């Protein structure tokens, strides 16, 4: 029997997760479980945040990667390991390999955020940039494994990976024995499967809800079909759960043990990330905020106490800026307006003065004088404003109208 065939026939048990927990002692942090008063008031029951965004490397991925690499035979370790990732798995494999004295090579897309590339190198991996998307990096990593004998470390489709991720579930039961619902983001399914194995083995009454981004939700159609189904073009800002096909091993476990897989929109992800930053004071990437997005979108659907797993915090600063703007816009805290005014000295100052009266913060001004659509004495101004919410947006627009301006959008 080949090693690959043996892996596919293996499942994951509570004993596997407990063994992984012992193996990770002194390696992975027991991350904090923090209460959220804001979410608790929305849900009507205690809500706690499992802060895997504060794990070493900034995500839960170290757990599974370490267990997988630690379980290799001596000759396999000597051949080194290879992985493909745009971020979290790359860093987990890099650090786990360094801790175990194993050579690691990680293929990353050429467009991967520079902070994630730098971090992966600093954790000790040789980084090779290949392709524009992770699928191309994945193909290159698998070709490298075939050519060199290096062991390919899959991000989610292996029993050892799942057992390592399942240690999050053991910690939740220790930290919150009264938990009734656990909400966790789902990409390939490794984290959800591992948590489900650990929790359902000890507390079958606990409800486990998986969350996927609406534009990258491969699990609902796969569960309906009874087999993994591939998405042709998954699209979401949450790259940590942007997976086009469930893994074979986690799919079987999710189908058996996870009670529900729901989806959230990009607006809901943005609002959740903003809430984590503003109210919980936690930097969380969009994938890590997906459980919070589910709680915000359907607060009545979750019996408490609820634990939401914040799976990672490795967010590119450029993406963070975009997502925060999107989240504020989704909450009605940004307002974009276009209007025309007479092109004369002081006209723009008068407009800004009218906005200051209603306490609207001007973020950006675009002032156009030369356009064939405009009259000889006209100018068009586009304003991006920060407001206090939908009611304030309406107040600002009315104030502009009262001041004699025609608001076009």
**Named CATH architecture of the largest domain:** 3-Layer(aba) Sandwich
CATH topology of the largest domain: Rossmann fold
Number of helices in the DSSP assignment: 18
Structural class: alpha/beta
**Strand order, sheet with most strands:** 1-2-10-7-8-9
Cα end-to-end separation: 66 Å
Counted up, domains total 3
By DSSP, the count of extended strands is 14
List unreliable stretches of 5+ residues. 1-5
* Beta-strand content bin: 15-25%
Indicate the radius of gyration in whole angstroms: 24 Å
The helix content, as a percent range, equals: 40-55%
Envelope shape: globular
Mean pLDDT: 89
Q: Specify the CATH class of the largest domain.
A: Alpha Beta
Main β-sheet: number of strands, strand sense, barrel status?
6 strands, mixed
Describe this structure in words.
With 409 residues, the protein is α/β, with parallel strands linked by helices. It has 3 domains: 3-59 and 160-327, Rossmann fold (3-Layer(aba) Sandwich), CATH 3.40.50; 61-157, 3-Layer(aba) Sandwich (Rossmann fold); 332-407, 2-Layer Sandwich (Alpha-Beta Plaits). Helix content is 44%, strand content 18%. The chain is built from 18 helices and 14 strands. The strands form 3 sheets. The chain has a 6-stranded mixed β-sheet. Strands 5-4-3-6 form a 4-stranded parallel β-sheet, with helices on both faces. β4 (104-108), α7 (114-122) and β5 form a beta-alpha-beta unit. The longest helix has 15 residues, at 134-148. The radius of gyration is 24 Å and the shape is globular.
């Amino acid at each position: 029997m080949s090693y690959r065939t043996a892996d596919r026939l293996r499942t994951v048990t509570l004993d596997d997760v407990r063994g992984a927990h012992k193996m990770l002692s002194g390696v992975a942090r027991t991350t904090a479980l923090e209460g959220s008063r804001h979410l608790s008031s929305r849900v009507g029951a205690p809500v706690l945040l499992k802060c895997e965004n504060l794990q070493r490397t900034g995500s839960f991925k170290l757990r599974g990667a370490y267990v997988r690499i630690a379980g290799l035979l001596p000759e396999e370790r000597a051949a080194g390991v290879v992985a493909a990732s745009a971020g979290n798995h790359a860093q987990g494999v890099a650090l786990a390999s360094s801790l175990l004295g194993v050579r690691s090579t990680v293929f990353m897309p050429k467009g991967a955020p520079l902070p994630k590339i730098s971090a992966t190198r600093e954790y000790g991996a040789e980084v090779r940039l290949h392709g524009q998307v992770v699928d191309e990096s994945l193909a290159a990593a698998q070709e490298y494994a075939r050519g060199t004998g290096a062991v390919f470390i899959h991000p989610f489709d292996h029993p050892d990976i799942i057992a390592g991720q399942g240690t999050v579930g053991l910690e939740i039961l220790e930290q919150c024995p009264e938990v009734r619902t656990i909400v966790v983001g789902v990409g390939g399914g490794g984290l959800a499967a591992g948590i489900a194995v650990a929790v359902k083995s000890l507390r079958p009454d606990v409800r486990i809800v998986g969350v996927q981004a609406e534009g990258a939700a491969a699990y609902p159609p796969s569960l309906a079909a009874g087999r993994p189904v591939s998405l042709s073009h998954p699209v979401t800002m949450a790259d940590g759960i942007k997976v086009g096909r469930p893994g074979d091993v986690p799919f079987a476990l999710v189908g058996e043990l996870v009670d529900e897989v729901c989806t959230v929109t990009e607006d809901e992800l943005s609002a959740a990330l903003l809430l984590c930053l503003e109210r919980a004071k936690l930097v969380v990437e969009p994938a890590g905020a997906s459980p919070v997005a589910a709680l915000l979108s359907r607060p009545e659907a979750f019996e408490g106490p609820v634990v939401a797993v914040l799976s990672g915090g490795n967010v590119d600063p450029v993406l963070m800026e975009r997502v925060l703007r999107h989240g504020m816009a989704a909450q009605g805290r940004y307002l974009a307006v276009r209007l025309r005014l007479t092109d004369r000295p002081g006209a723009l100052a008068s407009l800004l003065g009218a906005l200051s009266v209603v306490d609207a913060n001007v973020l950006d001004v675009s002032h156009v004088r030369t356009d064939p659509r405009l009259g000889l004495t006209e100018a068009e101004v586009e304003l991006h404003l920060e407001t206090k919410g939908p009611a304030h947006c309406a107040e600002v627009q009315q104030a502009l109208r009262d001041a004699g301006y025609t608001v076009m959008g």
